[in-house]
Amino acid sequence: MINKLELYIHIPFCIRKCAYCDFLSFPAGEKDRQSYVEALLDEIYGAKEKGDAATVFFGGGTPSILPGKEIGRIMDAVRAKYSVPEDAEITLEANPGTLNRKKLEDWKKAGINRLSLGLQSAEDAELKALGRIHTWETFLESYRMAREAGFQNINIDLMSALPGQSAYTWRKTLQKVTELKPEHISAYSLIVEEGTPFYEKYAEDVKRREKGLPCGFLPSEDEERQMYYDTEKILKAEGYRRYEISNYAREGFECRHNCGYWERKNYRGFGLGASSLIDEVRFHNTESMENYQNRAFGREDEEYLDAEAQMEEFMFLGLRLTQGISVNDFEKKFHTPYVSVYGKISRELEEKKLLRRENGRIFLTERGIDLSNYVLSEFLLSE
């Protein structure tokens, strides 16, 4: 029996693969989608773990591509296997252009109480460059419908450093979005992954930059840095508190599910390729649709995380949160003094003004957040 468990449900389908996306997602017809849902239901009903599902998160892909009744069937399966408290946070990712009033009504009936809308940009030219299927007006209509349906906890996903984007158009996006007063905003910088349509253009840009030649695909490093600083400045002025490196919320609307990842709570993933962490054992589902539809739900790449790996994750995940980590929690969990493991590197990072210690907690400074990739990598013990 696991007291608190977070559930992630992967819906891998989308209408069209975006040019920057390297997630396990793809277009599929209605027959394949229906077959997948039946397999997903079998996996959930066959789960061995028992416990309280503190949060449920439908991610993708585009979960909102499914008919509303299918989301209801999946939630019925979840409730049949797990105890879902009345105050559980139940999130569904939805892309503009895939919502309608019937779906929203069905989601409410199923218990969905938080929507995450994938806007990315309020500029149509930037959306087109990303390969998104929606426009700003399409998004506005989806947002209005969600509010009219009674959703009172909405996140809007945004992305900066896009092809053709400037600091000016990024500020316009932030201003337009904050005028809508969503409860939560996720603001990530584009990371170009190998194997995506963007990668070849990005690699050419890198070569040109190394030779001192002008680059035209992505914004300059100076402009990207300006976007980064503008994000916190504008969102803070509009009442959004940064609680994680790339996430901002009004008081009381922090994403409990994602905080669970950063705090290393047990989570169970269902669906194609979904990952899980149960009692320090990490594993994932098959990434083969054929195998999944044949009910091959076995645990792949199962790995027990030893104390060293647990310490690393405790630090580089916990430090993503602006509240940082508790030294006392570290020592209680690992039965060893913090200074004996991380004393030296902590002192060095404090001297560089990248870490700060206060009231028994250690957290990133503003400069540390700016250089978070470097700072967090310093807590890897195996290097």
From TrEMBL:
It comes from the Bacteria. This is Oxygen-independent coproporphyrinogen III oxidase. It comes from Hominisplanchenecus murintestinalis.
